[in-house]
Inverse folding.
């Protein structure tokens, strides 16, 4: 039986995996990071360390070392969780995700992606509250390219503010721990959020096994069966 732990990206929650999770089989746990989905942690408690602790708890509940999957900004948390408990990770899968090197942050990697659809006119910075909002009507098509209309509408309605602090926190990774974990990069060829150009740049900086999906940024909604088959092959 394969175990999977699923980590969502910015503005999302465990709900984003609802179409995919039943297709995976085995033990599957989708995590709500602090302050996301059904979790009500105040923004002051939303730190990268708290995110990692939440994922490690899920890994400890799995019956065997798990395939740990991070989408988009969730790749930062996945990398740091694999550093903390490499013994609990069978493989780390970065799904259209930021795959950091030691000392890098999600914000720093996002700034490299000059062609991304995440632009200032599609965001609302609530600096005093430590949050970043999206403008749904301006970002919907880029986030959910290829998704059924009903699923895209439902997803937009569930987006939540994104805490700023974890985005700007650098990871601390070592060759002995994170470097010992098998890494797989699932590259989404039609992604407009984390563009294919940046995804290839990340893979070039940290070579790993690469699989490609002819999909936009959210294949768990647009292509769940194809994504499930890809993950099963891991």
């Amino acid at each position: 039986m394969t175990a999977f732990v699923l980590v969502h990206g910015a503005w999302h929650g465990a709900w984003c995996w609802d179409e995919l999770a039943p297709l995976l089989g085995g033990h599957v746990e989708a995590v709500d990071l602090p302050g996301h989905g059904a979790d009500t942690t105040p923004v002051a408690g939303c730190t990268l360390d708290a995110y990692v602790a939440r994922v490690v708890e899920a890994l400890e509940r799995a019956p065997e070392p798990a395939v740990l999957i991070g989408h988009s900004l969730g790749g930062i948390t996945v990398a740091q969780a694999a550093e903390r408990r490499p013994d609990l990770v069978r493989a780390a899968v970065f799904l259209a995700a930021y795959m950091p090197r030691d000392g890098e942050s999600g914000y720093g990697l996002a700034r490299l992606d000059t062609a991304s659809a995440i632009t200032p006119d599609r965001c609302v910075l609530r600096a005093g509250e430590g949050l970043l909002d999206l403008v749904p009507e301006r970002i919907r098509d880029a986030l959910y390219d290829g998704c059924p209309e009903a699923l895209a509408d439902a997803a937009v309605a569930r987006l939540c503010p994104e805490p700023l602090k974890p985005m700007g926190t650098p990871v601390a990774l070592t060759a002995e721990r994170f470097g010992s974990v098998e890494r797989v990069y699932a590259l989404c060829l039609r992604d407009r959020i984390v563009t294919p150009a940046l995804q290839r740049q990340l893979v070039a900086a940290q070579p790993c096994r690469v699989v490609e999906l002819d999909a936009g940024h959210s294949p768990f909604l647009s292509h769940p069966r194809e994504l499930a088959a890809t993950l099963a092959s891991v």
Notes: The CA atoms of residues 111 and 118 lie 10 Å apart. The chain has one domain: 3-233.
